[in-house]
């Protein structure tokens, strides 16, 4: 049973391969020829013109008719076909059919051509509508492709804007840090200046206090007398300069 299943599957694979080759042959990909809108020329309603054109080079103009008459005579003489009442009925029916075709054929053909033209017109309208919609779809696709290309530029612009914002924030933070550091340094400088000024004032006050406390009353009286003597001496000098 296993061998039978293997053989069946192998045969199916071979058939699929053959079918694939058949459907992918160059002939299957050839375009289908267009059907003719009107039939070929005929004589007597049913005999194609090609038969007459085929026999003319060998039998002349009367050859096809003589062939038909001889074939009919042979069939009747050999009683291959026997004339009976069905023959007359068929002749009558054929006469009526030929009369009907000759009488009403042009009108029926015109009506059929009108219906065919209406169908062709409707098909052409559908085709034009489809072509218009497809052309619009192509334009829309091209527009979308153009938008997709512009989207890359938009992304680049947004990326540059984000980079500029980040750089601006970085510089603002650097400026803020610089100001804070400067404030702290100014505070330290002001603190050191205050310490130095307070030390100087303390030193001056201390020296002045020590100097004041080191002066005795006798020294103070001596210095006051010395000052008075110096003032008198200066007064005399000024008077002498004035009299001169």
From TrEMBL:
GO MF annotation list: proton-transporting ATP synthase activity, rotational mechanism
Domain of life: Eukaryota
SUPFAM superfamilies xref list: ATP synthase B chain-like (SSF161060)
Gene3D superfamilies per record: 1.20.5.2210
A Pfam family it matches: Mt_ATP-synt_B
GO cellular component, one term: proton-transporting ATP synthase complex
Localization (cell): Mitochondrion; Mitochondrion inner membrane
Keywords, sorted A to Z: Acetylation, CF(0), Hydrogen ion transport, Ion transport, Membrane, Mitochondrion, Mitochondrion inner membrane, Transit peptide, Transport
Keyword Mitochondrion tagged: yes
InterPro entries attached to this UniProt entry: ATP_synth_Bsub_B/MI25, ATP_synth_F0_suB
Function of the protein: Subunit b, of the mitochondrial membrane ATP synthase complex (F(1)F(0) ATP synthase or Complex V) that produces ATP from ADP in the presence of a proton gradient across the membrane which is generated by electron transport complexes of the respiratory chain. ATP synthase complex consist of a soluble F(1) head domain - the catalytic core - and a membrane F(1) domain - the membrane proton channel. These two domains are linked by a central stalk rotating inside the F(1) region and a stationary peripheral stalk.
Quaternary state and interactors: Component of the ATP synthase complex composed at least of ATP5F1A/subunit alpha, ATP5F1B/subunit beta, ATP5MC1/subunit c (homooctomer), MT-ATP6/subunit a, MT-ATP8/subunit 8, ATP5ME/subunit e, ATP5MF/subunit f, ATP5MG/subunit g, ATP5MK/subunit k, ATP5MJ/subunit j, ATP5F1C/subunit gamma, ATP5F1D/subunit delta, ATP5F1E/subunit epsilon, ATP5PF/subunit F6, ATP5PB/subunit b, ATP5PD/subunit d, ATP5PO/subunit OSCP.
Similarity comment text for this entry: Belongs to the eukaryotic ATPase B chain family.
PANTHER family linked to this entry: ATP SYNTHASE F(0) COMPLEX SUBUNIT B1, MITOCHONDRIAL, MITOCHONDRIAL ATP SYNTHASE B CHAIN
Name under which the protein is recorded: ATP synthase subunit b
Organism: Oncorhynchus tshawytscha
């Amino acid at each position: 049973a296993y061998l039978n299943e293997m053989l069946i599957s192998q045969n199916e694979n071979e058939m699929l391969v053959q079918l694939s080759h058949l459907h992918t042959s160059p002939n299957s990909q050839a375009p289908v020829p267009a059907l003719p809108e009107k039939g070929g020329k005929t004589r007597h309603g049913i005999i194609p013109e090609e038969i007459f054109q085929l026999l003319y080079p060998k039998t002349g103009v009367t050859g096809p008719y003589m062939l038909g008459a001889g074939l009919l005579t042979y069939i009747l003489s050999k009683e291959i076909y026997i004339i009976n009442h069905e023959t007359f009925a068929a002749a009558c029916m054929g006469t009526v059919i030929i009369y009907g075709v000759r009488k009403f054929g042009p009108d029926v053909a015109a009506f059929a051509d009108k219906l065919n033209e209406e169908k062709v017109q409707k098909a052409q309208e559908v085709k034009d509508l489809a072509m218009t919609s497809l052309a619009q779809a192509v334009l829309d696709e091209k527009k979308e492709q153009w938008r997709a290309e512009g989207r890359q530029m938009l992304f680049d612009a947004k990326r540059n804007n984000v980079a500029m914002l980040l750089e601006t924030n970085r510089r603002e933070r650097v400026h803020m840090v610089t100001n804070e550091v400067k404030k702290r340094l100014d505070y330290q400088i002001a603190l050191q200046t205050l310490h130095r000024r307070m030390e100087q004032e303390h030193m001056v006050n201390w020296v002045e206090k020590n100097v004041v406390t080191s002066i005795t009353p006798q020294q103070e009286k001596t210095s006051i007398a010395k000052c008075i003597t110096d003032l008198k001496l200066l007064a005399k000098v000024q008077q002498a300069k004035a009299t001169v």
